[in-house]
Write a structure and sequence with these properties.
315 residues; mainly beta; Neuraminidase; four-stranded antiparallel beta sheet; 0% helix; WD40/YVTN_repeat-like_dom_sf
Length: 315
C-alpha cells in the first residue's frame, strides 16, 4: 500500500525502478474508445501549442483545438491510469502513468506511442521536458528518471537521501532560468540547479504533503494539504504562507499573463486572485479537481473526477 493517499485519484502500490529499462513483459491493452471521453476522470493537462491535451483514467487521452469547448479522443496503446502529460513544444509531448508507462507524441497529442516501460514498473506521477531531448519523470517512493535523447533511454536519478530517499515525488516543474523543483510528501520539496545532477532538500514549513507547484512571476509556489499555499522569492531559501481561504487539498494552479492565479483542489475548491490574496469558492458539484490550464483565448479549463470543462468566470 502507498504510505499516504496520493492526489489525482487513488493510486495503486508499485515498486521503485532501480535497474536498466526493458520491454514490457506482456503486450499492453489499448485504451477503449469512449463515447463520452471528455467525462472520463482527468489527472493531468498540458498545452501543445494552441491545442489542449488531457490524460486520465483507463489510458484516456483527449485533445481540444477550440480552447476546451470540444474534445476528441486519441488512440492510446495502453489502458493504465495516465497521471501527467507535458509538451516541450507544439509537437513533442510525453505522458506517464502507472506501471512505469512512458508515452510519446510527435503530433501535438493527436496520436500516441508506447515509448518505454521503466523496469520495476513504478507509479509515475509527473513528467517535464525542458526541450525535445531532455526530460524528467518522477513518482512514488522516490522514483526519479531523466533522459537526454527524447525518451529513447532513461537513467535513474537520485533526488532525496537518507530518510528522504523514498518520499513520494508528486510534481516536478521548472522556474525561469532552468532551476527544477519537486513538490513531495511530508512537507518536503527539492531543488536542482544543475539539470538533476544534485538536489537540495527544501523544508518550506508544511506538515502535510505538497501536491503541486509552479513558477509565477518572481515567486515559486507550492500547493498542498489543508489548503496550504507557500511562496518563495529566493529560490526556496525563505517561505511565506498565503491565506488560501480553504482547508481542502490543493492540486493544481496556473497564472495568467497578468500574474493572476487560478488554483484548484479537492471538494470543488477553486481559488482566484493575486499572490497576496486568494478568494476561495466551492463548486456546486464539489468534484475533486486535479488540473487547471489556460486556453489560448485566456479561458480557464479544469480537469477532475468528472472530466474536463471550461471554468465559468469569477462570480
Amino acid at each position: 500500500m502507498l504510505k499516504k493517499t496520493m492526489p489525482r485519484l487513488v493510486l495503486a502500490a508499485a515498486a521503485l525502478a532501480a535497474v536498466p529499462l526493458q520491454a514490457a513483459d506482456t503486450a499492453p491493452v489499448p485504451a477503449m474508445a469512449a463515447r463520452l471521453a471528455a467525462r472520463v476522470p482527468v489527472t493531468g493537462m498540458a498545452r501543445a501549442g494552441d491545442a489542449l491535451v488531457a490524460v486520465g483514467d483507463y489510458g484516456t487521452a483527449i485533445r481540444s483545438t477550440d480552447g476546451g469547448r470540444t474534445w476528441q479522443q486519441a488512440a492510446v496503446p495502453v489502458s493504465t491510469l495516465l497521471t501527467a502529460v507535458h509538451f516541450a513544444d507544439a509537437s513533442n509531448g510525453w505522458a506517464v502513468g502507472h506501471g512505469g508507462v512512458v508515452l510519446a507524441s510527435r503530433d501535438g497529442g493527436a496520436t500516441w506511442a508506447l515509448q518505454q516501460v521503466l523496469d520495476g514498473k513504478p507509479v509515475l506521477l509527473s513528467v517535464y521536458f525542458e526541450s525535445a531531448g531532455r526530460g524528467y519523470a518522477v513518482g512514488a517512493y522516490g522514483s526519479a528518471w531523466r533522459t537526454a535523447d527524447g525518451g529513447a533511454t532513461w537513467a535513474p536519478m537520485m533526488v532525496g537521501s537518507g530518510a528522504d530517499a523514498d518520499m513520494h515525488l508528486n510534481h516536478l516543474f521548472a522556474a525561469p532560468g532552468g532551476a527544477l523543483y519537486i513538490a513531495a510528501e511530508s512537507g518536503l520539496a527539492f531543488r536542482s540547479g544543475d539539470g538533476g545532477d544534485t538536489w537540495t532538500t527544501l523544508r518550506p514549513g508544511a506538515s502535510g504533503s505538497l501536491w503541486s507547484g509552479l513558477a509565477a512571476g518572481d515567486e515559486i509556489l507550492l500547493l498542498g494539504m489543508s489548503g496550504r499555499v507557500l511562496a518563495s522569492r529566493d529560490g526556496g531559501g525563505h517561505w511565506r504562507t498565503l491565506d488560501s481561504g480553504t482547508g481542502q487539498s490543493l492540486t493544481g494552479a496556473v497564472a495568467d499573463a497578468d500574474g493572476r492565479l487560478t488554483v484548484v483542489g479537492a471538494g470543488g475548491a477553486v481559488l482566484r486572485g493575486g499572490h497576496d490574496r486568494l478568494a476561495a469558492e466551492v463548486r456546486a458539484d464539489r468534484q475533486n479537481l486535479a488540473a487547471v490550464l489556460l486556453a489560448p483565448d485566456g479561458g480557464v479549463v479544469v480537469g477532475g473526477q468528472l472530466g474536463v470543462e471550461r471554468l465559468d468566470p469569477p462570480r
